[in-house]
User: Fold these one by one.
Assistant:
Number 1:
Amino acid sequence: MPVQTALWKVGEQPVRLVGAALPSERLLETMILASPQMLSDEWMLIGQQSDTGFGGRVDLLAIAPDASLVLIELKRDRTPREVVAQALDYAGWVERLESQDIDQIYGRFRPGRNLANDFKERYGRDLVEEELNQTHQIIVVASALDESTERIVGYLNAREVPINVLFFQVFAFGDEQILSRSWLLDPVRTQANAAATSAGPNEPWNGEFYGSFGVDENRSWEDAVKYGFFSAGGGAWYSRTLQLLDPGSRLWVKVPGQGFVGVGIVAGRVQPANLFRVNTADGLKSIYDAPRAGKYLDYFRDDANMCEYFVPVRWLQTVPVDRAVYEVGLFGNQNSVCQPTAPKWRHTVERLKSLFPNHSEQRA
């Protein structure tokens, strides 16, 4: 049934806040432009009212940390079904955007600014042209949704179309108004659907997981091998896809910019940093009390959104980073974990199996 949020004022006698409405649906777009975090802490807005060239305008366009695009359509005065249909229509235009088109869109949105420079400043890595707009998400922003439209969105998502609905509901609080936000579907599934596909033909997922392990002062591959884990953190976009990993899953790990460094079997569920324990010579210890090379965002250890998250892994075969396997044509992606459906992933796994012969050890 359609999403509904209820709020109460805290007190010995709680008071339920009354539902209200914004003076204008266009006010929501103004608020989002002033504070894009209302949509997501993970996206950077790059366009507004972008002309599709066939009589339509995309309300908002954003870019994610993996250089994929996010098409955002606001309901405004349209019915929910109309805005979903419009968003799907516009997605065909987004899919065909080339790097120069995206540069021009950003130039109109932020005159005098450079997309590559701003992307690096925001996400701490270079904007690689080959990664730009390989995938995209479709986000519908609405204050209400009928059951028929909800079924349509659910049907599309179940078939790996990366579409979701973000609800904003308004409540009266004295003379002021409060805005609440909630997702129709778990955003980890929408992100996973986007990461799995790529521009061009796709095929059924082969059951093999891809993992991107960013090595820096916060994360050490030597630690991961020694203690048996895979980790990611620094925001929900980076850590939430770890939820895709079930015990028994096989995970192929790549260090960005270096190559593939190992394959292992997932041995447990994802855990936040403050709960994760490792075996040491002195017994079971918190990762933060164990001898380690990485910091694992220790300054965020109690922040559920920003902290490092860990997945226990039984490594089947690993190599040091300086011996990472890199070949032209192998799959790569900036999502921490994904279930690729691009044909390149099948080729990559077949090649890696020959290079990591211990991959076939009995799964847990």
Number 2:
Amino acid sequence: MSLLIRINLALGAVFVAAAMLAGYACWNILETNAKREVFTEAGLMMDSALAIRAYTASEILPLLASQIRDDFPPQSVPFYAATQNFLRLRERHPEYTYKEATLNPMNPRDRAADWESDIIQRFRNDARAQEMVGERDTPMGKSLYLARPIRNEPECAACHSTPASAPKTLLARYGGDNGFGWQAHEVVGAQVVSVPFASASANAGRAFRAFVISLLAVFAAVFLVVNGVLYLLVVRPVRQIARVADRLSLGDMSTEDFPKRGAREIASLVRSFNRMRKSLAKALQLLEH
């Protein structure tokens, strides 16, 4: 096996090991960054919902308070306002979802699904938990979710403690069977934002492919440079030395001189062969005489 082949095999083994290690590290970094990007987006959506709720409570509810005696306007409920806002968002971006999921809602559309009920139960089991994140499979692909607990605050007690204490117009709209019996500061639901992971994952995939292509190009250039340098500085001079030495071993003293160019080690080898050639020529002269 030639020297170039052995060196190329060694470089190839190093390249494969380095490429696997670099690819694994790169993919983990890209995927982590993609998830961080998605969760940042989910956090902005959650903060937007909180801002809508706060605006509704502080500015819309006082304007509609006088109408509650005659007809209960759902627009006065902060939860309703936030949900309606994101329903409009879903008209253009159906893969994004926001829900004020509740175990015992007054409005049936807010009833928690099975996976949302699990999140609420985890909040109920851990009173210190303020936020939960995770991922789930949906018909539109993998989705990451961000959830925060909904607690029964004092301002909610008037409508959700007992049917007797709730406004009659509210009972006329939603009935008195659901949405009551909430205890003070009890976790009754969860705000859940779901953001698609497909787009961020696709961006990470494109960045990873670009990285792999760049890595292949770099190693290809390294292979070419290493092979070129080895051939010019080692392989070609050694082949010339071998050819001259072979002719000298057959007694042809008229053959060309050993190559004078090459790396320092090759030059040292050439000097040794030249001394051997002179010694061989003198020995032949002595034998002839």
Number 3:
Amino acid sequence: MSVRSDVARMTAYTLELRSAEVKLNQNESPFDFPAELKQQVLERVAKRSWNIYPDFEAISLRGAIASSFSPLPATRGEGSGVRGFTPDNILVGNGSNELLAAAIGAFVGPGTPVVFPRPTFTLYEKLVTIAGGLPVPIEFEPDSGLLPLDAMLNAISEYQGAIVIVCSPNNPTGGVLPRGGLEKLLSTGATVLFDRAYGDFANDELPPLDDRLVTFSTFSKAWGLAALRVGWLASTAANCREIRKVKLPYSLNIISEAIAEIALQNREVRDRNVASIISERARVYEALRAIPRITVFPTAANFITFRTERPLFEELCARGILVRDVSAYPRLAKCLRVSIGSREQNDRFLDAMGDLT
């Protein structure tokens, strides 16, 4: 079997399997979906014939998403003057990762330059490489809490036809684009793939439609539905038509579709949980800052990344606390990332950090 040389050189995106009493390593919500809403899902799905494929177009869920979000009017392109979305502006998939892969497949070809900050979600560079694109990473120091907007703008001007991928708040650093940053990126004429997986924790607004913008969202984080794998993207109808050509068919099952629709009907559950996570984030952040020999990075996400003077990952594991070791990322030597859990989980983590440092 002949495997492409660039693929052979890559490492797989993976995660070491470990068990722990306190699991704070994957940016999951500490709040499970309410039992009464789970029961509604089961009752709805039980009435559905399981021998029949899901709706090919996922019209019901796309419509529910479109009616649930109302961005400000767009100022450029096809979406100009449009308030809110229609189902034609929405695609859904098996997590936002599938949709990111489809969008990269639609917009990135051999030699296409793709600008992104680094460190960031490592899957971006892998998908660009698989598509044959030219990765253009913009290295930055994460301690300011801001992404390197000026350096990204310079790279866009240098590489004709560049595509931009940006995650704000950024994983794994927690930093964000400076105010007005997305608008400045779009003003260059570059196509921007904007990943707002953690946007709910930054109290951001869904950006308006633009010919050169594709926005990715997920039900995994703020909505607490990581096990269901439901993601969605918003863009102009023209962009959605092209991305749909690359996306796999039938990538969502009827259970995932049903639970996403019921979640949208009970948005107050998400809002309450997000408010709790943001409050706990502030408490954990200040507590970590008070610990000597710890450098804490500013964050607008549901996690905190910090640098320690000595390795602590295994010692935390020995105490039943699993965090994410991100020290292999560029510029994140000796760094760990901890998800914001329940108050009890966070207390366990902070107590261990106090003992170990």
